[in-house]
Amino acid sequence: MYKLKTSKSITKRFKFKSKNKILRRMAGHNHLLQKKSSKRKQKLRKVLTLEKVDRSSLIFKMPYVH
């Protein structure tokens, strides 16, 4: 059987801490920051864990990382 390829975009966007814990950043904190309030930008800085529903599809695309 051939070697499965890992998705490089997923390796850049997510951090794998354990099989049950995958970290992600919140969207919208890269550009157009002038019109966003400081309170909103502060909330966008947080790192969140990935939901259980999305975890299964992500692990399928990352066969060797987790």
UniProtKB/TrEMBL annotation:
Single GO MF annotation: structural constituent of ribosome
Cross-referenced InterPro entries: Ribosomal_bL35 (IPR001706), Ribosomal_bL35-like (IPR021137), Ribosomal_bL35_CS (IPR018265), Ribosomal_bL35_sf (IPR037229)
Keywords (A to Z) from UniProt: Chloroplast, Plastid, Ribonucleoprotein, Ribosomal protein
Keyword Transport included in the entry's annotation: no
Pfam families cross-referenced by the UniProt entry: Ribosomal_L35p
Subcellular location: Plastid, Chloroplast
Gene Ontology annotations for the cellular component aspect, listed alphabetically: chloroplast; large ribosomal subunit
Coiled coil: none
Main location: plastid
GO biological process, one term: translation
UniProt family annotation: Belongs to the bacterial ribosomal protein bL35 family.
Name listed for the protein in its UniProt record: Large ribosomal subunit protein bL35c
Species the sequence originates in: Gracilaria vermiculophylla
Organism placement in taxonomy: Eukaryota, Rhodophyta, Florideophyceae, Rhodymeniophycidae, Gracilariales
Gene: rpl35
